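Sample pair:
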Amino acid sequence: MEKRIYLDNAATTYVSNEVLNEMLPVFTSIFGNSSSLHSFGRDASALVDKSRDRVAKAINASSNEVFFTSGGTEANNWAILGIARANRKKGNHIIVSSIEHHSVLDACAQLEKEGFKITYAKVDEFGIVSLADIMHNITKDTILISVMTVNNEVGTVQNIKAIAKTAKENGIIFHTDAVQGLGAVKLDVKDMDIDAMSISAHKIYGPKGVGALFIRNGIRIESIIHGGNQEKGKRGGTTNVAGVVGFGKACEIAIRDMAVNQQKLKVIKDYFISEVTKKIQYIKVNGHPQQRISGTVNISFEMIEGESILLRLDLEGIAVSTGSACTSGSLKPSHVLEAMNVPIETAQGSIRFSFPKSISKEDIDFTIEKLVGIIEKLRSWSPITKAGRGKKDVH
């Protein structure tokens, strides 16, 4: 294998050189514990403060509203569990969309064991969460609504501002998982009326193992990690200074370069969809045709299994995904596509292509060439293909 092409950016990104260069001194010269009172600790603490400012600026928050976590999953768990438990006296009902990341859905499952009632709002065929369904399900006991900004499997962008406005009008706390939105769409917690927002570094060319939860001042939330006074006493544990520094720099770069990156990715996305649609029959492009980020394309290839496509592309040096990286070990069809009413047999042939900012047209052409051959071969072996539905059987 000579050529290697990475098209699984929605799972994780590489760490950019700018980010890495900013992180390196933290491993060697500025290695103090940021909670220590001596000069080594103060030097590290200054870097954490600078990074908190950078992260806050990226989402138009105040620095004292940003709390570092180990990633998006912890941030989502903290938001869902912490807000629900802290506000239980007001009510025990929560509304989330049916296409949330499993870190939200599983946290809700835990809350159900604790006596909370969860409503899963419907989505349409394009993955747009129904505001009408949310409004219909609001009760006097509803204390929290959580809807992701951008879906991690199909790239659909939600109408977050309208949903947050509805929550505010009803006195309900609103949280959004914006992990896939950071660097792809404009995030402004003030303009969008967000009460809590989860973000992560490793989706924007920063390091793995660090994220943040924005918590608007005045929002009641319980801690879920105890054992220290870090993060203003809200989240115990030694601060991952190197990760935090990388996150801050990655946020700065993501906002600086967002317009250029998104324009390039839009051209790539449009070209990729156009060429695949022209050259391969019986496919379905999942997600909203316009209201979507440009870096993620989810396509169902009918009559074959997505895992077979993934493995054969991998043999050609091309990395893709069958959905969320967090569920890659599951044989169940995507809950996102299921909620969008994509038939199970179609959903099982789905592949997520998510493009890095460094992608080239040559890489895309190579991928399409290999993909066309792989689909033809797999369909020729499939007992349900009928050589393209209607032609003579292929044996």
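The chain has two domains: 5-12+258-381, 17-254.
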